[in-house]
Amino acid sequence: VLFRSDFQTWLNLEVETPINKRIMIHLEHQTRFINNSAQYGYSYFDAGGLYRFGKNLRLTFNYIFVNKKRDDPSFSYRHQFEWYLTYRKKVGKFTFFDRFLGDMQFKDFNSDAEGKRLRDFYLRNKITARYKLPHKFTPYVAAELYFKFDGMYYERGFNRTRLFYGLLYNLTEHWLAETSYTMEFNHDAKIPSNNYFLSFGLVKTFFQ
To answer: What letter would DSSP give residue 59?
Structure first.
């Protein structure tokens, strides 16, 4: 059994601003350093808009540019498009979220024989449950299913499952700490694999 561990650092910056009571635009950038945080490995730029149907239902559209390091020194460039509906429901101290997402991409547009073909059509459903505890703690659990429509025969269908366990803590009015554990099961790939992630993060909110 091959076991590989890697300490990574992810840096994320996100800015959101409302246009009116129903429409919001946002920009996001993330950079990841891999191989024990010694090497640049991945980044993406995300721009999109959100439409609020009511207090609990939102529709989001995003364009994402991705720069991802391959196993060799080269990089893969992707143009991704996604939309998703998010529904929120509060029941006592519980808050439930149901996110239904569709995405697709152009991969290596100018350097791959298939680069100009829109591909990797996914539908993803993620359900999250949070519980508000005293002393500013909020634990949560979540599950996400991936369904792929194209690709090789072993890629199509339900090909990935993710399970999330986490804890949020409000340090101050503007600072939020999060720790989480994620299990990822790639069960319909040509070479099935399982991945496990333990993460710690700090979130700074500039505007309330």
So the answer is: E
